[in-house]
Specification:
86% of the residues lie in helices and 0% in strands.
């Protein structure tokens, strides 16, 4: 089992425990009225699904960032050994640096989107604990701002990721053009 699997498993376990703790706290705050607890859970489901999607995006971003880092280490080692095509290797390292910066932006945007989603869920639970009506203007504006911000930041992270994917494809085509792979022909 890799360290990433352990971390993901631990995070999932903590999220499940936290969900049940918050659920039990909400049930205590609301008393024994079962319909109120159900309403709070229903309101919290949409942000929870968005949070799951953001977590999956962050996993993809970190995997791609790891691949870029591996490629940077490989090219840096080739440069230090004095490989023949230093100009090409330097250009590739610069291209990978730009890709990693774009991935960093995508990670930050997705993280802010996830944090806004968590804050929206927190506002829902705090509003339910105080028996606040979500139709009141202040909580509604806060929820709209947080959840709307979460969607905007997540969308921006996806657009940033699309830019990185297009860059990666373009970079692959450039490498293939500059260093064509000659297929080995079977002996006749």
């Amino acid at each position: 089992m890799s360290y990433r699997e352990v971390i993901v498993g631990g995070a999932i376990f903590c999220a499940i425990v936290a969900f049940f703790v918050v659920l039990s706290m909400a049930a205590e705050w609301l008393g024994s009225d079962q319909s109120s607890v159900t309403d709070v859970i229903q309101l919290a489901l949409t942000p929870a699904f968005l949070l799951t999607a953001v977590a999956a995006l962050l996993n993809v971003f970190s995997t791609r960032l790891g691949r870029v880092a591996d490629r940077v280490h490989l090219l840096s080692a080739d440069l230090q050994r004095g490989a023949a095509d230093t100009e090409f290797l330097s250009a590739q390292l610069d291209f990978l640096r730009r890709r990693s910066l774009i991935l960093d932006v995508a990670v930050v945007l997705a993280t802010v989107g996830g944090a806004a989603t968590c804050a929206a869920v927190l506002v829902l639970f705090l509003g339910a604990s105080r028996n606040a009506d979500v139709s009141v203007k202040a909580p509604r504006a806060i929820l709209f701002g947080l959840f709307g911000g979460a969607i905007v930041f997540t969308l921006a992270a996806l657009v940033t990721f699309l830019i990185e994917m297009i860059m990666a494809g373009r970079g692959l085509r450039v490498v293939c053009r500059q260093h064509p792979i000659r297929a080995k022909r079977p002996p006749s």
